[in-house]
Input
Amino acid sequence: MTEASRSRRPGRLLAAVAVLCAVPMALHAWVPNTGVNAGSLFQTLLPWTGLGVPLLLVLAAVRRSRAAAVAVLAPAVVWGTLFGGVLTDKRSGGGGLTVVSHNVNEGNTDPAGTARALVGAGADVLALEELSDASAFVYTRELTTAYPHHAVIGGVGIWSRYPLADVRAVPIMPWTRALRATARTPDGPVALYAVHLASVRVSAAGFTTGRRNEAARELAAALRAEPAPRVVVLGDFNGTYLDGALAPVTSQLRSAQREAGDGLGFTWPAAFPVVRIDDVLVRGMTPRAAWTLPATGSDHLPVAATLGR
Output
């Protein structure tokens, strides 16, 4: 092997690595979810795959490899296609209904302070998840003045400036983690869902999502049967919008953050958010703006959206 051939080998290797990085990004929907649920785990962390692009560019520059630099365009283009539009500020004015969803964390030591922070957001509707019996009492006490209408079932609740009707639990799990209500807004009725899908776990056995996926299928069935033309689903989905295992739900709804947000809108963990597992999903309404709110006493950030007809 000549000296020139040996000097080109690292560049070719980098080019091959760049292409190999691009392929699973482009085909993320086909990454199998059998066994350790690698597909869901990869899709959860998919936004972070973009970090490989500048690293590969630096290595290509160090090796002075034109082939590697060109090959890095492949993962860069794929990542940009997936997330480039999400990074732009798509917020606009208008919209008649502002909603907030927050997993308030059952271990939150300051529910009263969290409630006051949420009131300060000025939303028309609040959906809270991971309520305990004790914290539900505190939230009701603190929120009643601003939100005279509320419904709490199990670990989820809705507080509203507008009257609520047709309140019922949505059986997605053996214990209540979802409820539905109709808000009688000035622009007409809106079906509201407050949802907390089952938690997932990462362990030596892999990414454990079975109970969450079953809850998602049950929620999807309820949404398919929902007759209201305007639907807002707020909650902690314990998974991202791109997680294919949640497609039974997300295929029926649109993410306010993806359509009208500014950036990726990560929500968990609150101290240093790396994934967006809390969301506002809609059907029959137009997202006008979406954003995250400042941290409270919870390990999740609250999410907010303004919606139009």
Q: What stands out?
A: Residues 1-7 have pLDDT under 50 and may be disordered. The longest strand covers residues 188-196. The longest helix spans residues 3-26. DSSP finds ten helices and 14 strands in the chain.
